[in-house]
Automatic annotation (TrEMBL):
Species assigned in the record: Komagataeibacter medellinensis
Molecular function per GO: kinase activity
UniProt entry keywords in alphabetical sequence: ATP-binding, Cell inner membrane, Cell membrane, Kinase, Membrane, Nucleotide-binding, Phosphoprotein, Transferase, Transmembrane, Transmembrane helix, Two-component regulatory system
Protein name: histidine kinase
Domain Histidine kinase: 260-460
Main location group: membrane
SMART domains linked to this entry: HAMP (SM00304), HATPase_c (SM00387), HisKA (SM00388)
One Pfam family from the record: HATPase_c
Top-level enzyme category: transferase
PROSITE patterns per UniProt: HAMP, HIS_KIN
InterPro entries according to UniProt: 2C_sensor_his_kinase (IPR050980), HAMP_dom (IPR003660), HATPase_C_sf (IPR036890), HATPase_dom (IPR003594), His_kinase_dom (IPR005467), HisK_dim/P_dom (IPR003661), HisK_dim/P_sf (IPR036097), Sig_transdc_His_kin-like_C (IPR004358)
Length: 460
């Protein structure tokens, strides 16, 4: 029983998901498209209802009355012709009925009707006239709506011949249906265009706000956006400007405090280094015996300065630098030269010619240096390469080391996760923060060289 109830519940959920997927495919994805659809559907429904009320009720009632009056006039004329069969009487009846009813009636004796029914035109009048003639006249009839532009030709088969009746079209048609359809469609289109113009202005303000938020998130700070559009959009723009000012003020204050902390920490270390450098190194036995200790202390001070610099860089971030256009090849050349000075075997691999991107050059060089330094400690060969993707630039740093296990590839980017003795574990953490500040992504993969590959994706 439980399995059957589970199947019964799964079926409606499957249909619901299919319906939602179909609706998402049909509906426009943009806000402007959905707003236009929300305005267009009620407008279209209103015009359709008004057309149905006019075409389906008023026009049909008037059409039936006009066609009924004409059919009655023709029927009475036929009855008079049958009652008074004399040629003189027939001529007088046709002339008198035509003059009184505004018709042109002609009797063609001895002729026969070759067509029956009616050829159709737009509107209900043709069907109403054919129906009323069939009800009022007991002989076959034919209505020709297309022989003359402003007239309607009606032919009735009588025992003595064919009665031809010519009536003006305006006597049967109240107004052209196409005129009402054109008016309804034109007014709907005009109102739709006016609504689209106003909605487009509102959506433009939202797009500007979204673009400003995206650029601010990427660190490309811009001037405050001008509030425009509806009241809610103006409030959102004002709130964004205030948030931007608070964040910039916070970053500036934090940078100032960190600069002071850096100065306060480096001053005693510099004093210690200077004191150790001024100690006597030759002459006395005590000085000679202190030489190894002095060298160790100088090394410890250098390591402390390196650790302090890493901590401050991790806390400070790289948000104060202005983004500029960077040539990837030039940046790779600088990193490779630095690695070769350090004794590493570094080279530039596949690179799209003339590849450029927008970013903070010092921050990105720091990322590549941290990643390459990490690779240098675990590998002998390092290759830098890059390629251009769709609206993005992908940078690769490959090495031929032992690689990184897949289960640890995310952990190495955490702060203080160091696999080397004496390391701070902040190099890759700083690199990830800088890449995220650029709106990009950094991750570890398996390198074609057999070691680890650092893949950096940056928007362009």
């Amino acid at each position: 029983m439980d399995s059957l109830s589970g199947m019964d519940n799964a079926a409606p959920q499957g249909w619901r998901r299919m319906r939602e997927r179909l609706v998402r495919r049909i509906l426009p994805r943009s806000l402007l498209g959905r707003m236009l659809l929300i305005g267009f559907i009620p407008l279209l429904a209103t015009q359709a209802i008004s057309l149905e009320l006019f075409y389906g009720h008023y026009l049909q009632v008037v059409s039936r009355r006009l066609s009924g009056d004409l059919a009655t006039t023709i029927s009475m004329t036929l009855d008079m012709l049958e009652r008074y069969p004399a040629p003189a009487d027939r001529q007088w009846i046709l002339e008198d009925a035509g003059r009184r009813a505004g018709l042109v009636m002609t009797l063609h004796e001895g002729e026969s009707l070759h067509r029956r029914g009616s050829n159709h035109v737009l509107g209900p009048i043709d069907e109403d006239l054919a129906h009323d003639l069939q009800a009022a006249v007991r002989w076959p009839t034919f209505v020709d709506w297309k022989q003359a532009h402003h007239r309607v030709m009606i032919a009735v088969q009588t025992p003595i011949g064919v009665l031809q009746v010519v009536v003006l079209r305006k006597r049967l048609v109240v107004a052209p249906v196409w005129l009402f359809v054109a008016w309804a469609s034109g007014s709907a289109l005009l109102l739709f265009l006016i609504a689209a113009l106003f909605m487009r202005n509102q959506v433009r303000a939202i797009r500007r706000l979204a673009r400003a938020a995206e650029l601010f998130g990427l660190g490309r700070d811009t001037v405050p956006i001008v509030p425009e559009g509806a009241q809610e959009i103006r409030k959102a723009a004002i709130a964004f400007n205030r948030m931007r000012e608070r964040i910039n003020r916070f970053v500036e204050q934090r940078t100032t405090v960190l600069a002071g902390v850096s100065h306060d920490l480096r001053t005693p270390l510099t004093r210690l280094r200077l004191s150790l450098a001024m100690l006597p190194r030759e002459g006395r036995v005590e000085a000679v015996s202190l030489q190894p200790d002095i060298a160790d202390m100088i090394g410890d001070i250098g390591e402390m300065e390196h650790m302090i610099e890493g901590y401050l860089s991790f806390a400070r971030g790289e948000g104060a630098e202005t983004p500029v256009v960077i040539r990837v090849e030039d940046m790779f050349d600088e990193v490779v030269v630095t690695l070769r000075r350090m004794g590493a075997q570094a080279a530039i691999g596949a690179l799209t010619p003339g590849l450029v991107m927008t970013g903070r050059p010092n921050a990105l060089r720091r990322v590549l240096s941290n990643v390459a330094e990490n690779a240098r400690r675990h590998a002998g060969r390092i290759v830098l390469s890059a390629e251009k993707g769709r609206r993005q630039v992908v940078l690769y740093v490959d090495d031929d080391g032992c690689g990184v296990e897949e289960s640890r590839r995310e952990h190495v980017f955490r702060p203080f996760e160091s696999g080397a003795a004496g390391g701070t574990g902040l190099g890759l953490a700083i690199a990830r923060d800088i890449i995220h500040a650029h709106g990009g992504h950094i991750g570890l993969e398996t390198s074609p060289l057999g070691g680890a590959r650092v893949r950096i994706v940056l928007p362009n």
